[in-house]
Amino acid sequence: MKRRSFLASAVGAAVARAAEPRLRCRTGGDFKILAVSDLHYRPEPDTHGIRLTERLIELEKPDLVIVDGDCVSGNDCPSPEAVRAAVGNVAAAMEKHKVHWAIVFGNHDQEHFPKTRLDKHAVLEIYASHAHNLNGAYERGLTGAGNKHLLVWNSSGTRPVYCIWLLDSNEYFTEGKNTYYDWIHTDQILWYYRSSIELEKRYGGKVPGLMFFHIPLREFNEMANQAKIIGARHEPEAPSPVNSGLFAAVLERGDVRGIYCGHDHTNNYVGRWKGVELGYVGSAGHRAYPRVAPDDPSNGKVRGGRVFLISEGPPARHKTWMRFKDGSVNWEFEYQSYSDYQLGK
Predict the structure, then answer these.
(1) CA–CA separation, 74 and 39 (whole Å)
(2) Short-list 54, 135, 112, 109, CA closest to 288
(3) How confident is the model over 257-268, as a mean pLDDT?
(4) How far apart (Å, rounded) are the C-alpha atoms in residues 193 and 168?
(5) CA distance linking residue 277 with residue 251, whole number of Å
(6) Alpha carbons 164 and 331: distance in angstroms, whole number
(7) DSSP single-letter state for residue 282
(8) Do 149 and 103 meet the contact criterion of CB atoms below 8 Å apart?
(9) What's CA 24's distance to the chain center, in Å?
(10) Residues with Cβ < 8 Å from 246, sequence gap 6 or more?
(11) What confidence tens digit (pLDDT) does each residue in 55-92 have?
């Protein structure tokens, strides 16, 4: 088989895989996603983090939960059994409530590897062993692991209305004596670009999307310094020093409407940069920074998760807000006209 035909077949197969199982809008045309990040779970349960995720699920009743990286604290998992226990803690809230869920890797997830020798593919098998997890059938042969997309279908199941892109933003790279955060590599970007084109051909138009990965792009910093944002920016962004070119690819394709990350625990803002939403999903774990007691009142507005409400349309669209540990929401997103004005929509 010629290389071009092979690539086309591989992308087509990935598109077909992304359709199963069908995530479908509810009767009435809505689909809700809850995204949390930076759980940093260990073999011993973080009861406060698990309970917070449960409460967010109970309040928002999502159709899909995404854990946006640093799901486990790799350094605290010295054996394969410890990794399985930590992954079990990640799964606990979603499996209890029988809601579909998926993860992306963060920079800390695989720090157990020198001790456990469990690579990302082996760890994803552990995740996928849980009944409601959707991390199986990801695209093989790319940098990182778990790169895939999930289609959200309309309530009648006849057409996809949104595409959920999950990418591995990788871990670290070393240059001389210095270590830096890694980036999303060219093969991953090409996979997104070609898959996006294939989806457009297959379904007769661009499928709008939301993209999730852990380490923010350099464009987050550009936006935060030059445009309006809504929400908290309590620390400087910590991207890779390398601009991967993913944002340019997203602009060229014109289908991804929002890119959302974790990594910077005390940021939960959202803004719009060159027409694309860039934002954070908020942290839910209680054993990483900010290191305050779990019952400290400051956790009420620092820890939480981001909600996305997709409406099938036509045209399909979404809105987003933060739901915090104290039960409150970002009031701005109760008034869509205000957020549109603030972000220049």
Answers:
(1) 11
(2) 109
(3) 98
(4) 15
(5) 11
(6) 25
(7) -
(8) no
(9) 19
(10) 167, 184, 188, 189, 192, 217
(11) 999 999 999 999 999 999 999 999 999 999 999 999 99
How far apart (Å, rounded) are the C-alpha atoms in residues 261 and 334? 22
pLDDT tens-digit map of 247-256: 999 999 999 9
Closest CA to 56 of 24, 88, 93: 93
> Measured between alpha carbons, how far is 271 from 158 in angstroms, rounded to an integer?
32
Per-residue pLDDT of 136-171, as tens digits, reads: 999 999 999 999 999 999 999 999 999 999 999 999
Q: Which of 139, 176, 152, 114 is nearest to 19 (CA)?
A: 152
Distance CA 211, CA 190 (A): 15
Three-class DSSP labels, 47-70:
HHHHHHHHHHHHHHCCCEEEEECC
- Hey, what domains does the chain have and what are their CATH numbers? 14-268+283-288+312-343 (3.60.21)
User: What does the block give as tokens for 143?
Assistant: 């940098």
324: which residues sit within 8 A by CB, 6+ positions away? 282, 300, 301, 302, 303, 304
pTM: 0.93
How far is it, in rounded angstroms, from Cα 168 to Cα 138?
11
| pLDDT at residue 12 tops 60 | no
Residue linked to tokens 């009435």: 28
